Amino acid sequence: MNLEEEFAQHRGELVAHCYRMLGSLHDAEDAVQETYLRAWRGHADFEHRSTIRTWLYRIATNVCLNLLQHSSRRVVPSALGAPGNDPEDLHAQALEVPWLEPFPDQLLGADPATVVGDRQSLRLAMVAAMQHLPPRQRAVLILREVLTWPAADVASLLDTTTAAVNSSLQRARAELARLKPREDELREPHEPLRRALLDQFQAAMESKDLVVLEGLFTEDARWEMPPIPTWFSGRADVLRLLDSKLRPGADRRVLVETSANGQPAFALYIHGADGQYHAHSVKVLTLTSAGISAVLAFHQPALFPAFGLPLIHRS
Length: 315
Known about the structure:
The model has no long low-confidence stretch (mean pLDDT 90). The chain has helices at residues 3-9, 11-22, 25-42, 52-68, 112-122, 124-130, 135-146, 151-158, 162-179, 193-207, 210-216, 235-245, and strands at residues 217-225, 228-233, 253-260, 263-271, 277-288, 291-298, 312-313. β5 and β6 (291-298) form a beta hairpin. It contains twelve helices and seven strands. The chain is an alpha+beta fold. It has two domains: 3-71 and 102-179, Butyryl-CoA Dehydrogenase, subunit A, domain 3 (Up-down Bundle); 191-313, Nuclear Transport Factor 2, Chain: A (Roll).
């Protein structure tokens, strides 16, 4: 295997690593590109004291830490304030907010075991929680807990001591314990309940069947729509939002199933005046045994190509 092939085989996991650090798919891909540029330039000095994979992770982590010196943490609407309750007050305010972005599972490669193994650390709620950590704490947590690096190796990468790494990890764990999602938000229901929830959600959204949707959402369900800062909490308010925004009638919408952050997702296409279905949003669902507990609907059609989806859907 030549160097280019060896670099290429690690690309998916490096993008996922940078995404955990940065909370943005676009920024993560830029960081990996910079990682490869630095690796090509520095390969002649690589002394093979570690594997190529470990060396690339070292470069990528430093690239991310440099980027985080000049950027703010990525957030979701619920991190900005209390929920709203008026579906007519959904102004996409001119906020200079760096929003969290979804991560297409297909970027991890074709091996389903890889997706399962990375699922918990890539879940949207977990990545959002990690964004609250200072960058170096975030790096320590990911390197130690996700990649299971020894503390001494993390200390070497960050040019610090093993004691400092262990202390930083302890603080990061404490903060994450306060912020991370409940355990039931990290455990999806088993088949066939999972399949039934997704099939019913898809059909009910396409037909605007509010009765079915009411039965699918948990009582404390959340619906968020970045870059719209207004979000909704509670089944009643979520249904009020959908009643207001889903146009009635057949063939108004098409949902195409995909997956993001190790979670089920749907790409929503809206029927336009030209008779075609246009990209609208990517909706990432959080499922529990009690039903759908959260929907993060990213109103960003520019995300569709990253999911291998066209901007115009032809059924």
